[in-house]
Protein backbone atom coordinates (compact mmCIF):
# COMPACT_ATOMS: atom_id res chain seq x y z
CA UNK A 1 0.00 0.00 0.00
CA UNK A 2 1.09 3.52 -0.46
CA UNK A 3 -0.43 6.87 0.16
CA UNK A 4 -1.25 8.88 -2.90
CA UNK A 5 0.45 12.27 -2.84
CA UNK A 6 -1.07 13.47 -6.08
CA UNK A 7 -2.64 16.42 -4.31
CA UNK A 8 0.41 17.32 -2.28
CA UNK A 9 2.11 19.61 -4.74
CA UNK A 10 2.31 23.00 -3.25
CA UNK A 11 5.20 22.87 -0.82
CA UNK A 12 5.26 26.61 -0.37
CA UNK A 13 1.70 26.62 0.84
CA UNK A 14 2.66 23.71 3.04
CA UNK A 15 5.34 25.78 4.75
CA UNK A 16 3.07 28.77 5.15
CA UNK A 17 -0.18 27.32 6.23
CA UNK A 18 -0.43 24.79 9.04
CA UNK A 19 -4.14 24.48 8.48
CA UNK A 20 -3.48 23.44 4.91
CA UNK A 21 -0.95 20.86 6.09
CA UNK A 22 -3.66 19.40 8.21
CA UNK A 23 -6.20 19.33 5.42
CA UNK A 24 -3.69 17.82 2.99
CA UNK A 25 -2.92 15.09 5.50
CA UNK A 26 -6.60 14.36 5.83
CA UNK A 27 -6.97 14.26 2.06
CA UNK A 28 -4.03 11.94 1.73
CA UNK A 29 -5.28 9.60 4.38
CA UNK A 30 -8.58 9.36 2.58
CA UNK A 31 -6.85 8.96 -0.80
CA UNK A 32 -5.56 5.44 -0.76
CA UNK A 33 -4.00 3.36 -3.50
CA UNK A 34 -3.17 -0.31 -3.18
CA UNK A 35 -1.60 -3.08 -5.21
CA UNK A 36 -4.52 -5.46 -4.82
CA UNK A 37 -8.14 -4.29 -4.93
CA UNK A 38 -8.94 -6.65 -2.06
CA UNK A 39 -7.09 -4.18 0.17
CA UNK A 40 -9.50 -1.36 -0.69
CA UNK A 41 -11.96 -0.85 2.15
CA UNK A 42 -15.62 -1.18 1.25
CA UNK A 43 -17.67 1.95 0.71
CA UNK A 44 -20.46 2.31 3.29
CA UNK A 45 -23.72 1.24 1.69
CA UNK A 46 -26.38 3.77 0.73
CA UNK A 47 -29.49 3.68 -1.36
CA UNK A 48 -28.62 4.15 -5.03
CA UNK A 49 -28.52 7.51 -6.80
CA UNK A 50 -31.37 9.09 -8.69
CA UNK A 51 -28.98 11.03 -10.91
CA UNK A 52 -26.10 9.65 -12.93
CA UNK A 53 -23.87 12.48 -11.71
CA UNK A 54 -24.01 10.80 -8.30
CA UNK A 55 -22.83 7.38 -9.51
CA UNK A 56 -20.42 5.35 -7.35
CA UNK A 57 -18.84 2.06 -8.43
CA UNK A 58 -21.09 0.08 -6.11
CA UNK A 59 -24.12 1.47 -7.93
CA UNK A 60 -23.12 -0.19 -11.20
CA UNK A 61 -25.13 -3.33 -11.66
CA UNK A 62 -24.43 -4.11 -15.31
CA UNK A 63 -21.20 -3.73 -17.25
CA UNK A 64 -20.73 -4.10 -21.00
CA UNK A 65 -18.08 -3.41 -23.62
CA UNK A 66 -17.64 -2.81 -27.33
CA UNK A 67 -14.32 -3.03 -29.13
CA UNK A 68 -11.92 -5.14 -31.12
CA UNK A 69 -9.64 -8.11 -30.52
CA UNK A 70 -8.01 -6.28 -27.62
CA UNK A 71 -11.33 -6.07 -25.80
CA UNK A 72 -11.94 -9.67 -26.84
CA UNK A 73 -8.71 -10.68 -25.06
CA UNK A 74 -7.28 -12.26 -28.18
CA UNK A 75 -3.98 -14.13 -27.67
CA UNK A 76 -3.73 -12.60 -24.22
CA UNK A 77 -2.11 -15.61 -22.60
CA UNK A 78 0.67 -16.06 -25.13
CA UNK A 79 2.27 -19.29 -26.19
CA UNK A 80 3.57 -20.07 -22.76
CA UNK A 81 6.48 -22.26 -23.64
CA UNK A 82 9.35 -20.12 -22.32
CA UNK A 83 10.22 -19.44 -25.94
CA UNK A 84 11.21 -23.04 -26.38
CA UNK A 85 9.63 -25.51 -28.74
CA UNK A 86 9.30 -24.94 -32.43
CA UNK A 87 8.05 -21.42 -32.19
CA UNK A 88 5.39 -22.42 -34.67
CA UNK A 89 1.88 -21.30 -34.01
CA UNK A 90 -0.36 -23.72 -32.28
CA UNK A 91 -4.00 -23.20 -33.14
CA UNK A 92 -5.06 -23.29 -29.52
CA UNK A 93 -3.23 -20.00 -29.01
CA UNK A 94 -5.66 -18.34 -31.41
CA UNK A 95 -8.02 -17.91 -28.55
CA UNK A 96 -9.94 -15.01 -27.10
CA UNK A 97 -9.34 -14.94 -23.38
CA UNK A 98 -12.48 -12.93 -22.77
CA UNK A 99 -12.50 -13.50 -19.04
CA UNK A 100 -9.23 -11.58 -18.75
CA UNK A 101 -9.99 -8.67 -21.09
CA UNK A 102 -8.93 -5.42 -19.43
CA UNK A 103 -12.35 -3.80 -19.79
CA UNK A 104 -14.84 -6.56 -19.09
CA UNK A 105 -13.15 -9.79 -18.02
CA UNK A 106 -14.70 -11.48 -15.03
CA UNK A 107 -12.39 -14.46 -14.44
CA UNK A 108 -11.65 -15.05 -10.80
CA UNK A 109 -8.55 -13.08 -9.77
CA UNK A 110 -8.11 -11.31 -13.13
CA UNK A 111 -7.23 -7.63 -12.84
CA UNK A 112 -9.85 -5.98 -15.03
CA UNK A 113 -12.14 -2.98 -14.92
CA UNK A 114 -15.12 -5.29 -14.35
CA UNK A 115 -13.46 -7.04 -11.41
CA UNK A 116 -12.47 -3.70 -9.89
CA UNK A 117 -16.11 -2.60 -10.10
CA UNK A 118 -17.19 -5.97 -8.78
CA UNK A 119 -15.15 -5.43 -5.63
CA UNK A 120 -17.76 -2.79 -4.80
CA UNK A 121 -20.80 -4.65 -6.02
CA UNK A 122 -20.53 -8.42 -6.01
CA UNK A 123 -23.81 -8.77 -7.87
CA UNK A 124 -22.37 -7.16 -11.01
CA UNK A 125 -23.80 -8.65 -14.22
CA UNK A 126 -22.16 -8.70 -17.64
CA UNK A 127 -18.47 -9.63 -17.20
CA UNK A 128 -17.20 -12.19 -19.71
CA UNK A 129 -15.83 -15.45 -18.32
CA UNK A 130 -13.47 -18.01 -19.77
CA UNK A 131 -12.26 -18.22 -23.35
CA UNK A 132 -13.09 -19.54 -26.79
CA UNK A 133 -11.53 -19.93 -30.19
CA UNK A 134 -11.22 -16.64 -32.03
CA UNK A 135 -13.65 -15.70 -34.69
CA UNK A 136 -12.70 -12.88 -37.02
CA UNK A 137 -15.26 -10.76 -38.68
CA UNK A 138 -14.86 -7.28 -40.01
CA UNK A 139 -17.90 -5.68 -41.42
CA UNK A 140 -21.11 -7.34 -42.28
CA UNK A 141 -19.89 -10.17 -44.47
CA UNK A 142 -23.27 -11.42 -45.47
CA UNK A 143 -24.22 -13.48 -42.44
CA UNK A 144 -24.15 -10.44 -40.18
CA UNK A 145 -21.18 -12.00 -38.41
CA UNK A 146 -23.68 -14.13 -36.54
CA UNK A 147 -21.08 -16.82 -36.00
CA UNK A 148 -19.20 -14.40 -33.77
CA UNK A 149 -22.02 -14.35 -31.32
CA UNK A 150 -22.43 -18.03 -30.61
CA UNK A 151 -20.54 -17.85 -27.33
CA UNK A 152 -22.99 -15.86 -25.26
CA UNK A 153 -22.19 -17.85 -22.11
CA UNK A 154 -18.53 -16.82 -22.32
CA UNK A 155 -18.84 -13.38 -23.86
CA UNK A 156 -21.85 -12.28 -21.80
CA UNK A 157 -21.72 -8.49 -22.41
CA UNK A 158 -18.29 -8.40 -24.05
CA UNK A 159 -19.57 -7.63 -27.53
CA UNK A 160 -16.11 -6.96 -28.97
CA UNK A 161 -15.21 -8.58 -32.28
CA UNK A 162 -11.68 -9.57 -33.23
CA UNK A 163 -10.86 -7.50 -36.29
CA UNK A 164 -13.51 -4.96 -35.34
CA UNK A 165 -13.35 -1.35 -36.49
CA UNK A 166 -15.65 1.53 -35.64
CA UNK A 167 -17.95 0.38 -38.45
CA UNK A 168 -18.49 -2.86 -36.50
CA UNK A 169 -19.92 -1.15 -33.43
CA UNK A 170 -23.49 -1.23 -34.69
CA UNK A 171 -23.34 -4.98 -35.16
CA UNK A 172 -21.76 -5.35 -31.74
CA UNK A 173 -24.63 -3.37 -30.27
CA UNK A 174 -27.13 -5.71 -31.91
CA UNK A 175 -25.63 -8.44 -29.77
CA UNK A 176 -25.11 -6.37 -26.63
CA UNK A 177 -28.66 -5.05 -26.46
CA UNK A 178 -30.17 -8.44 -27.10
CA UNK A 179 -27.90 -10.24 -24.63
CA UNK A 180 -28.43 -7.64 -21.92
CA UNK A 181 -32.16 -8.20 -22.10
CA UNK A 182 -31.63 -11.93 -21.51
CA UNK A 183 -29.54 -11.60 -18.37
CA UNK A 184 -31.15 -12.87 -15.22
CA UNK A 185 -31.26 -10.52 -12.25
CA UNK A 186 -31.14 -7.44 -14.42
CA UNK A 187 -33.80 -4.80 -14.33
CA UNK A 188 -33.23 -3.00 -17.61
CA UNK A 189 -35.06 0.08 -16.44
CA UNK A 190 -33.78 0.67 -12.94
CA UNK A 191 -30.29 -0.89 -12.86
CA UNK A 192 -27.31 1.37 -13.52
CA UNK A 193 -25.11 0.30 -16.40
CA UNK A 194 -21.68 1.17 -17.69
CA UNK A 195 -20.68 0.42 -21.29
CA UNK A 196 -17.01 0.87 -22.20
CA UNK A 197 -16.07 1.54 -25.83
CA UNK A 198 -12.48 1.26 -27.06
CA UNK A 199 -11.97 1.01 -30.80
CA UNK A 200 -9.52 2.27 -33.42
CA UNK A 201 -6.43 0.05 -33.56
CA UNK A 202 -7.58 -1.89 -36.65
CA UNK A 203 -8.93 1.32 -38.15
CA UNK A 204 -5.41 2.79 -38.01
CA UNK A 205 -3.97 -0.33 -39.65
CA UNK A 206 -6.68 -0.34 -42.31
CA UNK A 207 -5.68 3.16 -43.35
CA UNK A 208 -2.95 1.46 -45.40
CA UNK A 209 -5.19 -0.99 -47.22
CA UNK A 210 -6.94 -0.22 -50.47
CA UNK A 211 -10.46 0.70 -49.54
CA UNK A 212 -10.18 2.82 -46.46
CA UNK A 213 -13.18 5.12 -46.68
CA UNK A 214 -14.48 3.57 -43.47
CA UNK A 215 -11.49 4.60 -41.41
CA UNK A 216 -11.09 8.31 -42.09
CA UNK A 217 -11.42 10.41 -38.97
CA UNK A 218 -14.87 11.55 -40.10
CA UNK A 219 -16.09 8.04 -40.85
CA UNK A 220 -14.69 6.76 -37.54
CA UNK A 221 -16.40 9.56 -35.66
CA UNK A 222 -19.74 8.98 -37.40
CA UNK A 223 -19.71 5.29 -36.43
CA UNK A 224 -18.79 5.97 -32.81
CA UNK A 225 -21.36 8.76 -32.62
CA UNK A 226 -24.05 6.45 -33.97
CA UNK A 227 -23.16 3.82 -31.37
CA UNK A 228 -23.36 6.34 -28.52
CA UNK A 229 -26.65 7.63 -29.83
CA UNK A 230 -28.08 4.14 -30.10
CA UNK A 231 -27.07 3.39 -26.53
CA UNK A 232 -28.61 6.63 -25.34
CA UNK A 233 -31.85 5.92 -27.16
CA UNK A 234 -32.15 2.31 -26.07
CA UNK A 235 -30.58 1.84 -22.68
CA UNK A 236 -32.01 3.50 -19.59
CA UNK A 237 -29.63 4.51 -16.81
CA UNK A 238 -26.36 4.11 -18.66
CA UNK A 239 -22.94 5.65 -18.52
CA UNK A 240 -20.94 5.42 -21.73
CA UNK A 241 -17.26 5.10 -20.87
CA UNK A 242 -15.47 6.19 -24.02
CA UNK A 243 -11.78 5.28 -23.92
CA UNK A 244 -9.19 6.88 -26.21
CA UNK A 245 -7.27 5.11 -28.96
CA UNK A 246 -3.84 3.50 -28.72
CA UNK A 247 -0.95 4.54 -31.00
CA UNK A 248 -0.29 1.02 -32.19
CA UNK A 249 2.43 2.05 -34.67
CA UNK A 250 4.91 1.98 -31.79
CA UNK A 251 4.80 -1.81 -31.93
CA UNK A 252 6.62 -1.83 -35.24
CA UNK A 253 10.02 -0.70 -34.00
CA UNK A 254 9.56 -2.21 -30.57
CA UNK A 255 9.21 -5.73 -31.89
CA UNK A 256 11.52 -5.68 -34.91
CA UNK A 257 13.89 -8.65 -34.81
CA UNK A 258 13.01 -9.47 -31.22
CA UNK A 259 13.52 -13.13 -30.34
CA UNK A 260 10.48 -12.87 -28.08
CA UNK A 261 8.39 -12.28 -31.21
CA UNK A 262 9.71 -15.42 -32.97
CA UNK A 263 10.93 -13.96 -36.24
CA UNK A 264 10.91 -16.76 -38.79
CA UNK A 265 14.27 -17.85 -40.21
CA UNK A 266 15.98 -15.06 -38.30
CA UNK A 267 14.40 -12.40 -40.52
CA UNK A 268 13.73 -9.37 -38.29
CA UNK A 269 10.50 -8.46 -40.07
CA UNK A 270 9.09 -11.96 -40.38
CA UNK A 271 6.95 -11.40 -37.35
CA UNK A 272 3.26 -12.10 -37.24
CA UNK A 273 2.35 -8.49 -36.49
CA UNK A 274 3.62 -7.55 -39.96
CA UNK A 275 0.74 -9.61 -41.35
CA UNK A 276 -1.88 -8.27 -38.99
CA UNK A 277 -1.42 -4.58 -39.64
CA UNK A 278 -1.29 -3.39 -43.27
CA UNK A 279 0.80 -0.35 -42.34
CA UNK A 280 3.46 -2.67 -40.87
CA UNK A 281 4.15 -3.77 -44.45
CA UNK A 282 4.30 -0.13 -45.52
CA UNK A 283 6.66 2.76 -45.04
CA UNK A 284 7.71 4.84 -42.05
CA UNK A 285 5.42 7.52 -43.42
CA UNK A 286 2.49 5.08 -43.36
CA UNK A 287 3.15 4.43 -39.71
CA UNK A 288 3.53 8.12 -38.91
CA UNK A 289 0.15 8.59 -40.60
CA UNK A 290 -1.33 6.00 -38.24
CA UNK A 291 -0.33 8.19 -35.30
CA UNK A 292 -1.80 11.25 -36.94
CA UNK A 293 -5.01 9.35 -37.52
CA UNK A 294 -5.04 8.13 -33.93
CA UNK A 295 -4.71 11.72 -32.72
CA UNK A 296 -7.54 12.76 -35.06
CA UNK A 297 -9.73 9.92 -33.73
CA UNK A 298 -9.10 11.12 -30.21
CA UNK A 299 -10.01 14.68 -31.13
CA UNK A 300 -13.26 13.30 -32.55
CA UNK A 301 -13.91 11.21 -29.45
CA UNK A 302 -13.50 14.33 -27.38
CA UNK A 303 -16.01 16.16 -29.59
CA UNK A 304 -18.45 13.27 -29.17
CA UNK A 305 -17.94 13.46 -25.43
CA UNK A 306 -18.64 17.20 -25.49
CA UNK A 307 -21.71 16.82 -27.66
CA UNK A 308 -23.34 14.14 -25.52
CA UNK A 309 -22.15 15.66 -22.29
CA UNK A 310 -24.15 18.75 -23.22
CA UNK A 311 -27.20 16.51 -23.66
CA UNK A 312 -26.84 14.50 -20.47
CA UNK A 313 -29.92 13.62 -18.51
CA UNK A 314 -30.33 12.10 -15.06
CA UNK A 315 -30.17 8.66 -16.66
CA UNK A 316 -27.59 9.13 -19.40
CA UNK A 317 -24.05 10.45 -19.43
CA UNK A 318 -20.79 9.99 -21.22
CA UNK A 319 -17.23 10.08 -19.89
CA UNK A 320 -14.09 10.24 -21.99
CA UNK A 321 -10.90 8.70 -20.70
CA UNK A 322 -7.83 9.43 -22.78
CA UNK A 323 -5.52 6.41 -23.03
CA UNK A 324 -2.24 7.96 -24.13
CA UNK A 325 -0.17 4.92 -23.38
CA UNK A 326 3.33 4.73 -24.75
CA UNK A 327 2.83 1.57 -26.78
CA UNK A 328 6.38 1.66 -28.13
CA UNK A 329 7.68 1.79 -24.56
CA UNK A 330 5.94 -1.35 -23.34
CA UNK A 331 8.24 -4.12 -22.15
CA UNK A 332 8.05 -7.02 -24.60
CA UNK A 333 6.72 -9.32 -21.92
CA UNK A 334 3.62 -7.13 -21.68
CA UNK A 335 2.77 -8.17 -25.25
CA UNK A 336 1.42 -11.48 -26.37
CA UNK A 337 4.25 -13.58 -27.79
CA UNK A 338 1.76 -15.17 -30.16
CA UNK A 339 2.03 -12.21 -32.51
CA UNK A 340 3.70 -9.31 -30.69
CA UNK A 341 0.71 -7.25 -31.74
CA UNK A 342 -1.85 -7.92 -29.07
CA UNK A 343 -1.40 -6.90 -25.48
CA UNK A 344 -0.63 -9.79 -23.16
CA UNK A 345 -1.92 -10.24 -19.65
CA UNK A 346 0.43 -7.64 -18.13
CA UNK A 347 -0.64 -4.90 -20.53
CA UNK A 348 -4.32 -5.76 -20.03
CA UNK A 349 -3.91 -5.52 -16.27
CA UNK A 350 -2.11 -2.21 -16.50
CA UNK A 351 -4.66 -0.66 -18.85
CA UNK A 352 -7.50 -1.67 -16.54
CA UNK A 353 -5.79 0.07 -13.62
CA UNK A 354 -5.05 3.22 -15.60
CA UNK A 355 -8.64 3.51 -16.79
CA UNK A 356 -10.05 2.74 -13.35
CA UNK A 357 -7.83 5.32 -11.65
CA UNK A 358 -8.93 7.96 -14.14
CA UNK A 359 -12.68 7.45 -14.03
CA UNK A 360 -12.72 9.09 -10.62
CA UNK A 361 -11.02 12.24 -11.91
CA UNK A 362 -12.95 15.14 -13.42
CA UNK A 363 -12.36 15.70 -17.12
CA UNK A 364 -9.93 18.54 -16.45
CA UNK A 365 -7.67 16.23 -14.42
CA UNK A 366 -7.65 13.26 -16.76
CA UNK A 367 -4.29 12.70 -18.49
CA UNK A 368 -4.69 14.43 -21.85
CA UNK A 369 -1.22 15.71 -22.53
CA UNK A 370 0.96 13.36 -20.54
CA UNK A 371 2.06 10.09 -22.01
CA UNK A 372 1.51 7.14 -19.74
CA UNK A 373 4.46 4.79 -19.29
CA UNK A 374 3.96 1.15 -18.39
CA UNK A 375 4.30 0.50 -14.70
CA UNK A 376 4.24 -3.09 -13.53
CA UNK A 377 3.48 -1.82 -10.04
CA UNK A 378 0.74 0.59 -11.01
CA UNK A 379 -1.35 1.09 -7.91
CA UNK A 380 -5.11 0.84 -7.78
CA UNK A 381 -7.04 3.80 -6.47
CA UNK A 382 -9.51 3.04 -3.67
CA UNK A 383 -12.56 5.26 -4.18
CA UNK A 384 -14.06 6.62 -1.00
CA UNK A 385 -17.63 7.30 -0.11
CA UNK A 386 -17.16 10.84 -1.46
CA UNK A 387 -15.87 9.74 -4.86
CA UNK A 388 -18.09 9.64 -7.91
CA UNK A 389 -17.55 8.29 -11.41
CA UNK A 390 -16.89 11.68 -12.90
CA UNK A 391 -18.83 12.91 -15.87
CA UNK A 392 -17.91 16.57 -15.44
C1 LIG B 1 -5.38 -10.22 -4.15
O1 LIG B 1 -5.67 -10.64 -2.84
C2 LIG B 1 -6.55 -11.76 -2.77
C3 LIG B 1 -6.95 -11.97 -1.31
O2 LIG B 1 -5.82 -11.98 -0.50
C4 LIG B 1 -5.85 -12.96 -3.38
O3 LIG B 1 -6.72 -14.09 -3.35
C5 LIG B 1 -5.49 -12.64 -4.82
O4 LIG B 1 -4.75 -13.70 -5.39
C6 LIG B 1 -4.68 -11.35 -4.90
N1 LIG B 1 -4.57 -11.00 -6.31
C7 LIG B 1 -3.42 -10.73 -6.89
C8 LIG B 1 -3.48 -10.39 -8.34
O5 LIG B 1 -2.36 -10.74 -6.29
C1 LIG C 1 -1.04 -26.06 -27.96
O1 LIG C 1 -0.99 -25.16 -26.85
C2 LIG C 1 -1.78 -25.60 -25.76
C3 LIG C 1 -1.79 -24.47 -24.73
O2 LIG C 1 -0.51 -23.92 -24.51
C4 LIG C 1 -1.20 -26.89 -25.23
O3 LIG C 1 -1.98 -27.34 -24.15
C5 LIG C 1 -1.24 -27.93 -26.35
O4 LIG C 1 -0.62 -29.11 -25.90
C6 LIG C 1 -0.50 -27.41 -27.58
N1 LIG C 1 -0.70 -28.35 -28.66
C7 LIG C 1 0.29 -28.76 -29.44
C8 LIG C 1 -0.08 -29.70 -30.53
O5 LIG C 1 1.45 -28.40 -29.25
C1 LIG D 1 -25.27 -3.67 -6.06
O1 LIG D 1 -26.12 -2.92 -6.90
C2 LIG D 1 -27.49 -3.17 -6.68
C3 LIG D 1 -28.27 -2.42 -7.75
O2 LIG D 1 -27.84 -1.08 -7.84
C4 LIG D 1 -27.86 -2.75 -5.27
O3 LIG D 1 -29.22 -3.08 -5.04
C5 LIG D 1 -27.00 -3.52 -4.31
O4 LIG D 1 -27.24 -3.05 -3.01
C6 LIG D 1 -25.53 -3.33 -4.63
N1 LIG D 1 -24.74 -4.21 -3.79
C7 LIG D 1 -23.74 -3.76 -3.07
C8 LIG D 1 -22.99 -4.78 -2.29
O5 LIG D 1 -23.44 -2.60 -3.02
C1 LIG E 1 -15.34 0.61 -50.16
O1 LIG E 1 -15.97 0.85 -48.90
C2 LIG E 1 -17.23 1.47 -49.03
C3 LIG E 1 -17.71 1.80 -47.63
O2 LIG E 1 -17.71 0.68 -46.82
C4 LIG E 1 -18.16 0.53 -49.78
O3 LIG E 1 -19.43 1.15 -49.93
C5 LIG E 1 -17.59 0.22 -51.14
O4 LIG E 1 -18.38 -0.74 -51.78
C6 LIG E 1 -16.17 -0.33 -51.00
N1 LIG E 1 -15.58 -0.46 -52.30
C7 LIG E 1 -14.92 -1.56 -52.67
C8 LIG E 1 -14.36 -1.53 -54.06
O5 LIG E 1 -14.79 -2.53 -51.95
C1 LIG F 1 0.34 9.42 -30.62
O1 LIG F 1 0.67 10.05 -31.82
C2 LIG F 1 0.31 11.43 -31.88
C3 LIG F 1 0.58 11.92 -33.28
O2 LIG F 1 1.92 11.76 -33.59
C4 LIG F 1 1.05 12.20 -30.82
O3 LIG F 1 0.63 13.54 -30.82
C5 LIG F 1 0.75 11.59 -29.46
O4 LIG F 1 1.51 12.22 -28.45
C6 LIG F 1 1.06 10.11 -29.46
N1 LIG F 1 0.62 9.53 -28.20
C7 LIG F 1 1.35 8.66 -27.54
C8 LIG F 1 0.79 8.18 -26.26
O5 LIG F 1 2.41 8.24 -27.94
Structure description:
With 392 residues, the protein is α/β, with parallel strands linked by helices. It contains eleven helices and nine strands. The strands form three sheets. Strands 3-6-7-8 form a four-stranded parallel beta sheet, sandwiched between helices. It has a three-stranded antiparallel beta sheet with strand order 1-2-9. The structure holds 2-acetamido-2-deoxy-beta-D-glucopyranose (5 copies). One of its GO terms (molecular function) is phospholipase activity.
Q: Can you give me a brief rundown of this structure?
A:
With 392 residues, the protein is α/β, with parallel strands linked by helices. 30% of the residues lie in helices and 10% in strands. The longest helix has 26 residues, at 284-309.
List the helices and strands and how they pair.
Blueprint: E1 2-3, H1 11-16, H2 18-30, E2 32-34, E3 60-67, E4 95-96, H3 113-118, E5 132-133, H4 152-155, H5 169-182, E6 192-198, H6 201-206, H7 217-234, E7 238-243, H8 250-255, H9 273-276, H10 284-309, E8 316-321, H11 345-359, E9 380-382
Parallel strand pairs: 3-6, 6-7, 7-8
Antiparallel strand pairs: 1-2, 2-9, 4-5
The structure holds 2-acetamido-2-deoxy-beta-D-glucopyranose (NAG) (5 copies).
Task: Please give a handful of descriptors for the protein shown.
392 residues; alpha/beta; Rossmann fold; four-stranded parallel sheet; 10% strand; disordered N terminus; binds 2-acetamido-2-deoxy-beta-D-glucopyranose; phospholipase activity
